[in-house]
Fold this sequence. Notes:
Number of strands: 0
Structural class: mainly alpha
Helix content: over 70%
Order of helices and strands: HHHHHHHHHHHHHHHHHHH
Largest sheet: none
Number of helices: 19
Amino acid sequence: MSVPWIKYLPDFLRNRLESRQNLQKILTNTVWLFADRILRMGFGLVVGVWVARYLGPEQFGLFSYVLAFVALFGVFATLGLDDIVVRDIVRNPSDKDEILGATFSLKLLGGLVGILLTTAGILLLRPNDRLTHSMVAIIASGLIFQSFDTISFWFQSQVQIKYVVYAKNGAFILIALAKVGLILSHASLIAFAWAALAEIILGAVGLTLAYGANGHLVRAWRGSIARARSLLTDSWPLILAGLAIVVYMKIDQIMLGEMLGNQAVGLYSAATRISEIWYFIPVAIVSSASPSIVEAKAISDSLYYQKVDKLFRLMAVLAFSIVIPMTFFSGHIIDLLYGPEFAGAGSVLAIHIWAAVFVFLGVAQGPWTVNEGLMKLSLQRTVIGAVANVVLNLLLIPRIGVVGAAISTLIAQALSSCILNRFDRRTRRIFTLQMRALVVWRDIR
């Protein structure tokens, strides 16, 4: 049975898609993810910029610092389970309640660990800053409720991401409107921390309701120690890899805060929020295409790499279509959105946006890495990238300020996502595909 929207396509497209049910599901899933992110990109950017202008570089910098600090330890709430759980459900759908139950238990425990580490870390780093302590405690509490993201893995495995979009977007819109109310009522900075926590809680409630509406019950989950051990055996390299990724995505803001102060973090965060807002594109496409790649590997090696190649080429084209115009108009974009107080963020955006090229290619490599069982190698790459980012930040931030942090992130992304693939025989074929993909004038078939 064809999906309803196919009848609105031109004849030549409709004829090609009508008999390809799996492709229709992937495209529908991708459209829902794009709708989700486009709404967040549009509505969220407007509200986010309004919040930044209301708070100013100093307070916005502190808020961004706290979010980055919590994200640094929030990896313990995710445990790198996303692709592993989706893969296992696709392969063994009859075990879904056991898989989801074990995943939920692991994520709940990981959230508690994350809260403890975050609280202890901020007390050590800023022992006398009570405002920062309070904000970290509030936002970190959301790590517990992220365990309900387990439900989203089920919908991903069924290529039914629209239900996740309903739940997450409902929470997002309500809290975005609440933030507007906070601005109009001249609320304090800490009120925005409570709003961030409320969005996570509402998202968890929405996912639970969506799961129940589709005839499934959370109480039917039955976790087991054996299943949990199996999941962690596969995912522990991805846990450390996720930590390394967060380090080179967020450590720059923490280091800027400690080395140059909150205002520098505010300028940098203003630029990176525009730059990183595009990262939803590869995530949306890859999460929808991942089940198809898993299935292709079981059919033939040729079909498998053909799909991986097409994914890389598509990512490169999309990335360049974003970064080139953003580079030339970065100063105008910052001035238009944030105003003259954030003028220093323009040069940061012009550099940081180029990290998107390597982010897109790195995300596209994810399904291949999982399918090939190379999670440990992925860990090594991301750790090297994280270490490179920290070292470069130490060298460049004191010399060239916030621009140095942007350069450090760009180099770290390129190193981790692409360059290191060249130096291992197992990933050399992927490196070749990535480099070929960067020749964007090749046809996408």
